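Board notes (copied after class):
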Amino acid sequence: MFTAPFTLADLDELAELEPADWDAMMARLRWHLSTPYATVIKSVFGEALTSGLATGIAHEGSGWVGDRLLMPRFQGPELEGQLVDAVLKELKEYDCATVSALVEEASVPVFLERGFEHDGAYLRYAGGKSEPPTLDEVELCEPHHSMGILHLDRTASGEQRRVLISEHFYASRIYVEKGRVRGNYMPLLGDGLLLADRPDVGEELLRWHMPHVQEVWVPEANPVAREFLAIRGYTEQGRRFRMHQGPALPWRPEMVYGWISERLG
C-alpha cells in the first residue's frame, strides 16, 4: 500500500464510503483540491484501488490534519497512521512547525504514536432552546474592520490564518464597541466561527448563531459558553480531543464560542 495525491478523477471511487453527509464531503474535497494551501492524500491498495484518504490545511507556520476517511474493508489504525504520516509530510513542506488535529477517542493512540500531545478538548452541545439576539452592536463587516477581525482571530487561535479568514469577510457579522472589534461571527466558514474577547460578547454571538443550527462545538476550557448553553437546555453530546505536534500554539480557548470545524479547528 502506498500514498499519492488525490485528484478530481478519484471522486467516483468514494461511493463505498456512503457517508451521511455525502454532499458536504464532496464539497469539502473539491474545496481542498482547488485551494493552494490545502492538500488531499489517498492511500492505494494494490495497483489502483483507493483504500482511504486524508486532508490537511496549511496556515502561516501551522497546519491541521483534517478528514481521515477509510474504506470499510481497510479500516484500522495502521491505515489511519499511514495517512496521517503522509499529510504530516505535506504540511512540513509548507513549513508548518506546529500541526494540530481534532481527534476522536479511538484515534488518540494513532496520534500519540506520532508525537502529538493533548491540548484540551471540544464539546458538542445540542438539544436546547435558542433565543433571539438582544443587542444592536452586532453589524455587518465593512472593509475598515478587516484588521480588527484578523487581530482578534490571531489572538484567539494563536495562528496566522489570514488567508482563510479574509476569504469570509464578506459574510461576517462583528461586535463593535467604540470602533474596536470585540467579536466576530462567520456563519459561512465551516460550522460557523464565533470568537469574542469578552464573555457578554460571546454570549450575544451565540444568540445570533444558535437559531440557525442544531448543535455547536465549544472548548471544554470555555466555562462561559458551556454555562450559557447548559442554562438553555443544551447538553453535552460529543467530544473531540485537540492535539498538536510541535511547539504548542498560544491559543485562547476562552475566546472561542464555536469552532470552524473538526477539520480546521
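Comment from the instructor: The longest strand covers residues 235-245. The radius of gyration is 19 Å.
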